[in-house]
Write a structure and sequence with these properties.
about 90 residues; about 0% strand
Length: about 90
């Protein structure tokens, strides 16, 4: 995944939604990597040690994916729901 900034102060809603779409696409890639990794291990194409190492890397990426998803969701809520609640 490309470098990612958590500063959305200069971003509009459309840019944040685009970032969310990119993050979701990355999530699909991560799920595919996990599936490929498990299949490689089941087919005994990789050693257990390699599987454990690669699995940890995928796990770390998945945690980052979830963290980014939470930040993006918060940003979307701040720009859509909050103004509606505060305006009423």
């Amino acid at each position: 995944m490309q470098p990612w900034s958590e500063d959305f102060s200069e971003c509009g809603l459309e840019e944040i939604i685009e970032s969310q779409m990119e993050n979701r696409a990355w999530g699909k890639v991560l799920r595919r990597r996990t599936n490929d990794l498990v299949n490689s291990r089941l087919a005994k194409n990789i050693t257990h040690a390699d599987y454990v190492t690669d699995r940890q890397l995928v796990h770390d990426d998945a945690a980052e994916y979830q963290r980014r998803a939470a930040i993006l969701e918060t940003q979307i809520v701040r720009r859509t729901v909050l103004p509606l609640v505060l305006g009423s």
